[in-house]
Design brief:
- The complex is a heterodimer of chains A (158) and B (158).
- Chain A contains 4 helices and 5 strands, in the order αβαααββββ.
- With 158 residues, chain A is α+β, with helices and mostly antiparallel strands.
- In chain A, strands 1-3-4-5-2 form a 5-stranded antiparallel beta sheet.
- In chain A, strand 4 and strand 5 form a beta hairpin.
- Chain A is elongated, with a radius of gyration of 18 Å.
- Chain B has a domain of 101 residues: Hotdog Thioesterase (Thiol Ester Dehydrase, Chain A), CATH 3.10.129.10.
- Chain B has a 5-stranded antiparallel beta sheet, covered by helices on one side.
- Chain B is elongated.
- Chains A and B meet through helix 2 and strand 2 of A and helix 1, helix 3 and strand 2 of B.
């Protein structure tokens, strides 16, 4: 078995940025999302209700980030990082969880630009050997350039 | 939501976040795949899942995350605002099979639950912190997390 751990090659990836990606927040996507998870909130479905609410428009559900609003360049980041991890014998990838911070409401019709960064890579000793905890951070700006949200996803490689 | 708005003064440390029941079915997983764009066959194809060491098709972590998003945003209400949200995917969950085109077979029900862990006023914002989690039919917390919510205050209400 290959010696698993943080090689200099992997460590050097901390701070790597991705190309920005642009995503539209669509009313139909919000409706399908709410329907799939069984959330009856009229802010996700009823345009009249939403227009009369404090938001004035359908809003983006919390869980919308990650899927279907993908992290900026998450796949690109994984593509960059995977060869070094495979070389280190860490090729089983798990989704560890997410952490969101919201700064302003995100509405249907907004266009989000997302920038991704490899925020951190840490090594831990697990039951089955070494594991890497990779934190991918995505910052979302709206069409006015205002910071709307930051999402941090933890990827576990072992 | 069109339900009664909760206010900062209504909650104390230990207060319950109104629980929500969910039934993960193979139908829901397919709807989630379509709504989210996550088409990993681990979540709908038995033969593929058998090669992945998960003991069968499993519920998407991001679906459980979105259930928790439903839980906390429904509790915060239209006048509340979810500022921070996080969850970790700790345990695997297995969806119910379909008994008919519309209805899942008898089986496990999941509960999204939460409790207030802290409350304070900061920069004129009425902040409430909660622990939240998804509990499976055996009472195990497969998806623990936390949320920080800004609630309206009765004092600030005009």
């Amino acid at each position: 078995m290959t010696e698993a751990g943080i090689s200099d090659e992997i460590k050097a990836m901390i701070g790597t940025m991705t190309e920005p990606s642009i995503m539209e927040v669509e009313r139909g996507a919000i409706r399908r999302f709410a329907d799939a998870i069984g959330d009856p909130n009229p802010l996700y479905k009823d345009i009249e209700y939403a227009k009369n609410s404090r938001y004035g428009e359908m809003v983006c559900p919390i869980g919308f980030f990650g899927w279907p609003i993908k992290g900026g360049g998450l796949e690109q980041m994984m593509g960059m990082i995977m060869p070094a991890m495979i070389k280190a014998g860490l090729f089983r990838i798990l989704d560890g969880g997410v952490d969101y911070e919201f700064f302003i409401p995100i509405h249907a019709g907004d266009t989000l630009t997302s920038y991704g960064k490899v925020a951190d890579i840490r090594e831990r000793e697990g039951k089955s050997g070494k594991m890497l905890f990779i934190t991918m951070e995505q910052t979302y700006l709206n069409q006015n350039g205002d910071k709307a949200a930051v999402a941090r996803a933890t990827i576990i490689a072992r | 939501m069109a339900e009664k708005q909760i206010y900062y003064e209504d909650v104390e440390v230990g207060s319950e976040v109104t629980p929500i029941a969910k039934v993960a079915s193979t139908l829901m997983l397919v709807k989630w795949a379509g709504a989210s764009g996550d088409f990993n066959p681990l979540h709908f194809d038995d033969n593929f899942a058998a090669t992945q060491g998960t003991g069968g098709i499993i519920v998407h972590g991001a679906l459980k995350r979105s259930w928790l998003g439903h839980l906390i945003s429904a509790w915060a209400g239209d006048e509340g605002y979810v500022k921070k949200f996080s969850c970790q995917y700790r345990g695997m969950d297995y969806p119910r099979r379909m008994a008919s085109m519309m209805d899942p077979a008898e089986g496990e029900t999941w509960w999204c639950k939460g409790a207030v862990t802290n409350k304070y006023v900061e920069d004129d914002q009425h902040v409430v912190e909660c622990e939240i989690w998804v509990e499976n039919g055996q009472g195990e917390k497969t998806t623990p997390g936390s949320a920080t919510v800004i609630l309206p205050s009765k004092k600030a209400k005009k």
